[in-house]
Design a protein that fits this description.
This protein is mostly beta strands. It contains no helices and 12 strands. It is rod-shaped.
Length: 140
């Protein structure tokens, strides 16, 4: 396990700790094996560090759409793979309609329309990987 060198009264001692279980320590001093039993009050409990995360203070803002804009872009909220596309160019959709399914971190996320309109362009295809903030569908 660990090796130590001690100097006592001008004499050097090489100490190797072989094992440590409960209050029994097996060690070698200058090649001679010893079994040492520690007093119960000297045995300290092993401490395992605990990971503590500070809660995030950042608030998640929903994606805001400019209502005065004539074109609306549906962007990927997170990176993932397109599993299915539920609309085609020219379809008229209303707010809340399912547009496509995006798989991210082994979960299926249904991407819905936040605004009514007509599908002007579809910039993705089934099986394609998309990055966060990538434009997937454009509405007119």
């Amino acid at each position: 396990m660990k090796n130590f060198t001690f100097k006592i009264n001008e004499n050097n001692y090489g100490v190797k700790i072989v094992s440590h279980e409960d209050n029994i320590i097996e060690l070698e001093v200058n090649g001679t094996s010893y079994s040492v039993k520690m007093k119960e009050e000297e045995v300290k409990a092993k401490k395992t560090p605990t990971l503590v995360r500070k809660p995030s203070s950042a608030t998640i803002e929903p994606i805001k759409i400019n209502p005065s804009s004539s074109n609306t872009k549906i962007i990927a909220p997170i990176p993932g793979v397109i599993l299915s596309i539920n609309v085609k160019v020219g379809d008229t959709i209303k707010e809340g309609d399912a547009l496509l399914v995006l798989e991210a971190m082994k979960m299926e996320n249904s991407i819905t329309s936040e605004k009514s309109g007509t599908v002007a362009a579809i910039n993705v295809k089934v099986g394609q990987q998309v990055l966060q903030s990538e434009v997937m569908i454009e509405l007119a």
